[in-house]
């Protein structure tokens, strides 16, 4: 896609620090370097995000993660890593070409805070929600 920054990177029209490339995916260093080694993994096919991704593209993209994550861990010496994917603006997506963040973690006061608020579970509500999702998967 013409004015997609990641398509431009894939096409080599914008420079990037490439980490891994094959005919279907590209991994390169994120320009923001949230932590040292922060890497993005993208499908070469232009797709907005996981919500619009085919199973085949997802299978290929996600299959590349473990090897890339292990290599990044070894290269940086980071003992831990967050693997994050944002879908749509409300969830923090700013570039609308699907990508997975690999963020090496070095210590617990590195400025990154990933917090999930917990709520008292209402099992009746949970049950209904599970049923609803399950129905959508089958339809
Ligand atoms: P999002 O917020 O959509 O999940 O993540 C987009 C990421 O793309 C951000 O972390 C941002 O730093 C990165 N990014 C945006 N433009 C460029 C660019 O031109 N080059 C590289 N390497 N990363 C970019
Ligand atoms: Zn694109």
Label this structure with key terms.
HIT family, subunit A, 139 residues, five-stranded antiparallel sheet, binds guanosine-5'-monophosphate, alpha+beta
The count of domains is 1
Q: What percent strand?
A: 15-25%
Question: What's the CATH topology label?
Answer: HIT family, subunit A
Q: How would the global form be characterised?
A: globular
What strand order characterises the main sheet?
A: 1-2-3-5-4
Number of helices: 4
Q: Please identify the structural class as seen in this structure.
A: alpha+beta
Mean pLDDT: 97
Number of strands: 5
Q: Per CATH, which architecture? A: 2-Layer Sandwich
What secondary-structure arrangement, pairings included, does this model have?
Elements: H1 5-10, E1 18-21, E2 25-29, E3 39-43, H2 55-63, H3 65-76, E4 80-84, E5 100-105, H4 123-138
Antiparallel strand pairs: 1-2, 2-3, 3-5, 4-5
Description:
The protein contains four helices and five strands, in the order αβββααββα. A five-stranded antiparallel sheet has the order 1-2-3-5-4, covered by helices on one side. By secondary structure, it is of the alpha+beta class. It has helices at 5-10, 55-63, 65-76, 123-138, and strands at residues 18-21, 25-29, 39-43, 80-84, 100-105. The longest helix is centred in the last third of the chain and has 16 residues, at 123-138. The chain has a single domain (5-138), classed as HIT family, subunit A, CATH 3.30.428.10. The structure holds guanosine-5'-monophosphate and zinc ion. Residues 1, 4, 6-7, 46, 97 line the site of zinc ion.
Short description:
By secondary structure, this protein is an alpha+beta fold. It has a single domain, classed as HIT family, subunit A.
